[in-house]
Amino acid sequence: MIASDTFSVTHEDAQAIDDCWNRIGIHGDKSCPLLTEHIHCRNCAVYSAAATRLLDRYALQQEDREHAPGTLQSEVKTRSLLMFRLGEEWLGLATRSLVEVAPMQTIHSLPHQRSRALLGVANVRGALVACLSLVELLGLDGASSVATGARVMPRMLIIAANGGPVVVPVDEVDGIHAIDERLLEDASKSGSQANAKYTQGVLQFKGRSLRWLDEEQLLSAVTRSLT
């Protein structure tokens, strides 16, 4: 059966087709001699041919619209960022630096630690992986403030540092989001905050002020903390 929305979209084409089903067919006065044989217009070759013509015209129109200049928005380039929270601050890190988001594990302290950022080691699938404090590296206030009743699950981010994977605990993970690169460019142009370490810019996202981290600077700081 020919769908009604097809007629509405291709109204001009429909007018050029003899809709005999509406005149002498099942929806008309039923005087068509072929009704005795076909019982219903949808079983008739004339009806099927008209439907095919309309659908073909519709497909061609859609294709023309897709290729017509200025009819569709240009393809938006995006960059994937992992959004997470430390204390009261929301941050974004490029997902290409991320290996995995894992459940919180016990952190085992190490004797004679020289780096304040090095918390110890955590067991990741049977391997002991260095665990660092982003709060310390970024100079943040680590006090966590979460609305009463909110279901928040602390996580561990496994990130790919130069010397291998490193674990960093975070208070909350919002998820991975594709951000329009134009927004990121605007955030970069506005300039990083003077006292914000390893930051490319600050942008507004989901009603939050999000600090977009400079992954190269951050990973270099991570490597230095392990040496």
Automatic annotation (TrEMBL):
SMART domains in alphabetical order: CheW
Compartment list: Cytoplasm
GO biological process assignments: chemotaxis; signal transduction
GO CC terms of this entry: cytosol
Taxonomic superkingdom: Bacteria
Domain CheW-like: 78-224
A Pfam family this chain is assigned to: CheW
PROSITE patterns tied to this protein: CHEW
Keywords: Cytoplasm
Protein name as annotated: Chemotaxis protein CheW
Highest classification ranks of the organism: Bacteria, Pseudomonadati, Pseudomonadota, Gammaproteobacteria, Pseudomonadales
